[in-house]
């Protein structure tokens, strides 16, 4: 299983037309992969839309990537996209595949840079900690990057920002989170975006 997050920085006032373009683009007969999530940034860098898709394998992911790179109209909204970035991921192997679901009104997308060799240790730390952590709130996915600098991304849904703050405080107070040994492998460079599901998002 492979995942891709496409980050579309959209021109001012063009979010709605970009989302409509994405919807048609991922439903095209030639499209590969499966749309899992589509969110618009609310806190963090603004005017960004995140498209999460799942693919059966590397070949399917790369074929769909080539489709986007070879067209002047990626995601059916080329004129309204100021910047387009693709990130490819493999899931932490102990996690179930992402499935469409109604999990929350607010999603947090977090990316942490890792020290060299940090992927195996991070996966092990998360595998030990996640079963207790998800009793407090669900985890959509945690996945490590297949390109670019060593890093991993995790996506968490919450009912609200207040619920997010409460769950995070509770997990720390109970000693559930962060995963024991996990922070030792972080460089300290972290990025977080609060995003809201768009109308076409299977995860909402």
Features:
2 domains, Alpha-Beta Plaits, 8 strands, 4 helices, alpha+beta, 204 residues
What features would you describe in this structure?
The chain is of the alpha+beta class and 204 residues long. The protein has two domains: 2-90, Alpha-Beta Plaits, CATH 3.30.70.100; 92-194, Alpha-Beta Plaits, CATH 3.30.70. Helix content is 26%, strand content 35%. The chain contains four helices and eight strands; from the N terminus they run βαββαββαββαβ. An eight-stranded antiparallel beta barrel has the order 1-3-2-8-5-7-6-4. The radius of gyration is 17 Å and the shape is globular. The mean pLDDT is 98. Residues 3-95, 107-202 form the NIPSNAP domain. Belongs to the NipSnap family. This is NIPSNAP protein.
Question: What is the average per-residue confidence, as pLDDT, rounded to a whole number?
Answer: 98
Question: Low-confidence parts lasting 5 or more residues at pLDDT below 50?
Answer: none
**Biggest sheet features:** 8 strands, antiparallel, barrel
Decide which structural class fits the backbone: alpha+beta
In terms of DSSP E residues, the strand content is 35-45%
Order of helices and strands: EHEEHEEHEEHE
Number of E-type strands:
8
Helix content: 25-40%
Query: How far do the termini sit from each other?
Result: 22 Å
* Order of strands across the main sheet: 1-3-2-8-5-7-6-4
- Count structural domains: 2
The number of helical elements comes to: 4
Radius of gyration: 17 Å
By CATH, the architecture of the largest domain is named 2-Layer Sandwich
Shape: globular
CATH class of the largest domain: Alpha Beta
At CATH level 3, the topology of the largest domain is Alpha-Beta Plaits
Organism: Bosea psychrotolerans
Domain NIPSNAP: 3-95, 107-202
Pfam families: NIPSNAP
Family: Belongs to the NipSnap family.
């Amino acid at each position: 299983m492979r995942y891709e997050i496409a980050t579309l920085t959209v021109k001012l006032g063009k979010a709605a037309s970009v989302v409509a373009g994405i919807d048609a683009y991922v439903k095209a007969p030639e499209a590969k992969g499966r749309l899992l999530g589509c969110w618009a940034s609310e806190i963090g860098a603004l005017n960004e839309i995140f498209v999460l898709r799942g693919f059966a394998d590397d070949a399917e992911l790369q074929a769909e990537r080539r489709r986007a790179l070879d067209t002047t109209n990626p995601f059916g909204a080329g004129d309204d996209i100021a910047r387009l970035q693709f990130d490819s991921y493999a899931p932490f192997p102990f996690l179930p595949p992402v499935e469409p679901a109604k999990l929350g009104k607010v999603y947090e997308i977090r990316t942490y840079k890792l020290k060299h060799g940090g992927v195996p240790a991070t996966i092990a730390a998360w595998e030990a900690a996640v079963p207790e952590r998800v009793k407090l709130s669900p985890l959509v996915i945690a996945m490590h990057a297949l390109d670019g600098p060593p890093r991993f991304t995790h996506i968490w849904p919450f009912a609200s920002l207040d619920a997010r703050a409460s769950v995070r405080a509770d997990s720390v107070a109970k000693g559930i989170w962060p995963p024991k040994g996990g922070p030792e492998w972080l460089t300290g460079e972290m990025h977080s975006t609060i995003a809201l599901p768009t109308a076409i998002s299977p995860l909402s």
